[in-house]
Specification:
The protein is an alpha+beta fold. It is about 55% helix and about 15% strand. The chain has 14 helices and 11 strands. A 5-stranded mixed beta sheet has the order 6-8-9-11-10, covered by helices on one side. Strands 2-1-4-3 form a 4-stranded antiparallel beta sheet. A two-stranded antiparallel ribbon has the order 5-7. Strand 10 and strand 11 form a beta hairpin. The protein is elongated, with a radius of gyration of 46 Å.
Length: about 450
């Protein structure tokens, strides 16, 4: 699993990246095709307007005026022979209206544009206000122009000067993107779904890997925890089989006591695992009754005097709470306090120095357990209440357990509607603060 996990992540990442690049390429191609279609529609519309302006501008029959007794100057003859220009026949608004109508006929609606009409000398006859400004920018603005010439076969063909209709479309990508709005939204939604699926898949793999590691650690811990008492019992049984030991009642009693102690130890391990199963199924049965926590703490400390004596440790007790009456399950609440004290001793340095203090606020009884142990880093503090999690103990290899103790403590505190807070500094020790509702504030 450890070897294949990175390969799976890399494979999924490459697949997602390939899909994103493929979709981007597809959208770019679609955008290009749509732009070409848009440009073709605009060009056709402008061409239609240019032809319309040419047909409506020039007369099919040229009638020269006849006046008796009058002569005409050469300039007047020239004026008569020259066909009227677009600017002479149409206003700016009329040409703009024709262009807009032609675009709408080609399904190009609500598009802004600028236009101008130039003569054969490239001089503007008419133009919109921003035409000159946008004429120079050929990158952001699309330009379409067509000549305005009479129909083939017209009487003025070859006589009229050629004019040009030039239409500029500013921000021409906007209408193209607007036409692809739903396609773009669908593509983005599809990519979000793919990314979400990728996230869920990776998260599931990470969780699965984590569960696999937790399972392996739990099996290893459980094996060591049961192996030690079994080996001790086996040695004690072998000793009892010895005839000299059987004749010595004191030694017989000693080895029998060892077997009994190790049996109790194994039963505690089994009970811890069973409690973990009950907590997992949320079937922890509680028998709430009034308890004086100070009395409970004093009784619990009596059980740890031998361990403290062996390690030359001490526990300082500061029972300052004016009210210590709470409603709690005696068995589980006792186990919770025992776990905190047991951890304080196990994870302490050579000589444990533990302080248990109490005080109370208006609504809560507060108990604080401090030690001078090895402490925890920030990551360990965050995960200390996770089931099966065990903090790295550095050079301390004699610390045993399943990683269920602090998870059990958190569950008991939560079921009693209390709060627990951890403060720890690596190398200096830890402090656990528990707040429990006072008896008169607890609902039965």
């Amino acid at each position: 699993m450890k070897r294949t996990f990175p390969a799976i992540i890399i494979l999924i990442s490459l697949s997602i990246l390939g899909l994103i690049l493929l979709q981007k390429s597809w959208f770019d191609n679609l955008l290009e095709v749509t732009e070409n279609q848009f440009a073709s529609k605009v060009e056709t519309a402008v061409k239609d307007v240019a032809n319309e302006l040419a047909n409506n501008t020039y007369s099919r029959q040229l009638r020269l005026p006849r006046r008796n007794g009058m002569t005409f100057s050469p300039d007047y003859h020239l004026h008569i022979l020259n066909a009227p220009t677009v600017s002479e026949k149409f206003s700016l608004q009329e040409v703009a209206s024709k262009i807009k109508m032609a675009l709408e006929n080609r399904n190009v609606k609500d598009m802004s544009f600028e236009f101008g009409v130039a003569n054969s000398k490239e001089e503007l006859e008419m133009s919109t206000s921003r035409f000159n400004q946008q004429l120079l920018d050929t990158v952001n603005f699309k330009q379409v122009w067509f000549p305005i010439v009479p129909e083939s076969g017209s009487e003025l063909e070859g006589i009229a000067d050629s004019e040009k209709l030039l239409v500029i479309v500013p921000d021409y990508r906007k209408p193209v993107l607007a036409s692809l709005k739903w396609v773009l939204i669908g593509a983005v939604a599809f990519m979000l779904i793919i990314i979400a699926a990728f996230y869920i898949t990776v998260k599931s793999l990470v969780d699965q890997r984590k569960l696999s590691e937790i399972k392996s650690d739990f099996i290893n811990n459980m094996t060591h925890e049961f192996k030690t008492p079994l080996a001790t019992i086996s040695l004690a049984v072998d000793a009892l089989r010895n005839e000299k030991v059987q004749q010595d009642k004191e030694k017989t009693r000693y080895f029998s006591g060892i077997i009994k102690e190790e049996n109790v130890r194994m039963n505690k391990h089994v009970e811890t695992i069973l409690q973990a199963g009950l907590m997992e199924r949320q079937q922890l049965q509680l028998n709430f009754q009034p308890l004086h926590v100070h009395v409970l703490i004093t009784d619990i400390l009596d059980n740890y005097q031998l361990q403290l004596k062996e390690k030359e440790g001490e526990i300082r007790v500061q029972l300052n709470a004016k009210s210590d009456l709470i409603k709690a399950d005696e068995v589980h609440f006792t186990n919770m306090i025992s776990n905190l004290i047991d951890n304080a001793i196990k994870y302490s340095k050579e000589k444990p120095r533990i302080t248990i203090s109490t005080h109370c606020s208006k609504k809560f009884f507060v108990m604080r357990v401090e030690d001078n142990g090895i402490g925890m880093n920030k990551e360990t503090v965050k995960r200390i209440f996770e089931k099966f999690f065990r903090a790295h103990t550095g050079n301390l290899h004699d610390v045993k357990g399943f990683g269920l103790g602090m998870s059990y403590v958190k569950t008991v505190v939560d079921t009693h509607k209390g709060k627990i807070k951890v403060e720890s500094t690596l190398g200096k020790g830890s402090a656990f603060t528990i707040e429990m509702p006072l008896a008169e504030k607890v609902e039965s």
